[in-house]
Amino acid sequence: MRVLWSVRASARHYANNTFIANVLLHKRYYKPWGATIGLELHVQLAAAQKLFSAASAKWDDPPNTNVDFIDAGLPGSMPRLNPECVSLAARAILCLNGQVQPRSSFDRKHYFYSDQPLGYQITQQRHPIGRGGFIELSQADGIDYTKRVRIHQLQLEQDTAKSVHGVYPGYILTDLNRAGVALVEIVSEPDMETATEAVYFVRKMQTLLRHTGVSSCNMEDGSLRCDVNVSVYRGDEDRLSGTRCELKNLNSLKTIRGAIEAEVSRQIELISAGHRVKQETRGFDAHSGKTVLARSKETAPDYRYMPEPDLPAVHISKDWVEHIRSSLPELPEATLSRMTRQYGLLPEDVTTMLGEPGCITFFELAAKGRDPKRVAAWITSEIFGQLSYRAQRLNDSTLTVQQFTGLLDALASNAVTSGQAKLLLIEFMDGDKRTADELIQARGWEVMSDLGRLQDLATQLLGKHPKEAAEYKAGHKRRLNFFVAKIMAATKGQARPQDVSRVLKECLDEK
C-alpha cells in the first residue's frame, strides 16, 4: 500500500498542476498488482487437404483412415506444401490488419512424443508468413473502453496426432487422422491486462476467422486451442518484469477466464509470501479452480530448431496479396456499422449474429420486405436457442430461408399464433422439408378467427367457475390468466391469446 499512499500524496502536492495530478490519479496507478497476458492461438485451417500431403483433412473420420506417408512419418517420405493453406493463412493475417511477408520459410521443432510421428513438427519459427496487425476491442465487444491488442506473428504449422485414452486400460492409442492437418499459430503481444480482455480477444478472433472462411474455430472440437502466458508485477514495476508461466490447452472461454484468474492469484500469493515465481508450463484443473504444474518451461534451444531442408522458401508477390485482399468479404466491424445503420438493429444483436457462420447472409435474405428487428429477434432468440439445444451450427441445420420466411409471414398475417410458429420452427429444424403453409394445413393449425365461437366458450367457462369470476370482479385481475389458459387449452392453441383476453374481459364486464 506504500505505492498507493505515495501516489495520493503526490497528487495532493501537485494539485495546482492539473495535468500531473490527472496522470498520478489515473486508475492504473491505484493497482498494487497488475497482470501481463499474451495468447497463442492454434487454429485449424478450413482446407480440404492437409498441410504437406494430399490426405483429407477430415480428422474426425474413422481412426487412421486419412493418413499419407508423410503424416505417418514413414522413412523417405517428403512434404509437399498445399497452396490452399497458404491462401487461408494470408486471408487470416490480412483480416487481422497485418502484413503477408514476401518471403517465409519452414523450420523443424524437435520433440519426441507419441502424437508426433516424425519426431519433429514443421513450423515457421524464424520466418513466418504473417507479421504485425492488431485486434481492437471496444464497447461493441463488451468492454467500456478501447483496447488494442497487437499481433506479433502468424505462422503455418502442422497439427499433431490425437492421443486416445480409456479404450484399453493402461494403453494410449494414436489416431493419425489429425497428424499433418494445417494450423496457423497466432501469437499476440503481451498487451492484455485482465482475463476479461483475453476472453473478448479470443471471441473476436473467432468471429473474424469464421466470417472470412479461414476456420470454423470451434473450441469444443479442438479446431481452436489456446495457450496463455501470464506474469504479474507490482504497480510501480515494469509490466514486463514478471516471470512468465504458460497455461496450455485451454479449450473454452470459461476455462481461459478461470485459468488466468487462478494463475494471477497464485503468482501474487507466491510473491507476497517472499517466494519466487518459476518459469513453468501449467495446466488448469477446473474442478479445483487452480493451475497445476505440467513441466518446467521449455525454451527455443530445448527444441533444437533448424531450417526444414525438404521445403523451399515461400515467395509471395504483391499482386497475389492484393488478389487475396480483394477476395475478402466485408469484415465484421464494417458489417456491424452498416447493419446498425441500414436496419436499425442493436449492436449486440449484430455482434451475436456475426459470431454464427452464415447468419448475416441468412438474416439479410429473410429481412427483405419484412421488419428487420422482428427477423433479428427470431434469429437470436428462437433459432439460436434451437441450435444451442441441438449443439448445431446454422450452416449444418436443415432450416431454409424459405421455411423461415414462410413462418414469419404466417405469423404476421395471423395465420398462426406465436406458439404455433415456434412449433413450426422445431419441425423445420427436425428435418421436415415442407413449406410453412403445407405444414400448417397438415397440422390443422389455422388460427381460430371466429369470435362468436370464443364468446360461447367464454360464457360456458365463466358459468363453470363462478368463484374465480367473482374474484376477478373483486379486483384480482390476475384471475384473467386462469380463464385465458383454459380457453387456449380448449382450442388446442389455435386461438390468439389477445383475442381470448379481449372476449373474456367483455364477458366478465357484462357479467
Automatic annotation (TrEMBL):
Domain Asn/Gln amidotransferase: 361-508
Major localization listed first in the record, in broad terms: mitochondrion
Gene Ontology molecular function, alphabetical: ATP binding; glutaminyl-tRNA synthase (glutamine-hydrolyzing) activity
Signal peptide from the UniProt entry: none
Class of enzymatic activity (EC top level): ligase
Catalysed reactions, as listed in the record: L-glutamyl-tRNA(Gln) + L-glutamine + ATP + H2O = L-glutaminyl-tRNA(Gln) + L-glutamate + ADP + phosphate + H(+)
Subcellular locations according to the entry: Mitochondrion
A GO biological-process term: mitochondrial translation
One cellular component term from this protein's GO annotations in UniProt: mitochondrion
Record-listed E.C. numbers: 6.3.5.-
Job description of the protein: Allows the formation of correctly charged Gln-tRNA(Gln) through the transamidation of misacylated Glu-tRNA(Gln) in the mitochondria. The reaction takes place in the presence of glutamine and ATP through an activated gamma-phospho-Glu-tRNA(Gln).
PANTHER family assigned: GLUTAMYL-TRNA GLN AMIDOTRANSFERASE SUBUNIT B MITOCHONDRIAL AND PROKARYOTIC PET112-RELATED, GLUTAMYL-TRNA(GLN) AMIDOTRANSFERASE SUBUNIT B, MITOCHONDRIAL
NCBIfam families, alphabetized: gatB (TIGR00133), PRK05477.1-2 (NF004012), PRK05477.1-4 (NF004014)
Oligomeric and partner information: Subunit of the heterotrimeric GatCAB amidotransferase (AdT) complex, composed of A, B and C subunits.
Protein name, entry field: Glutamyl-tRNA(Gln) amidotransferase subunit B, mitochondrial
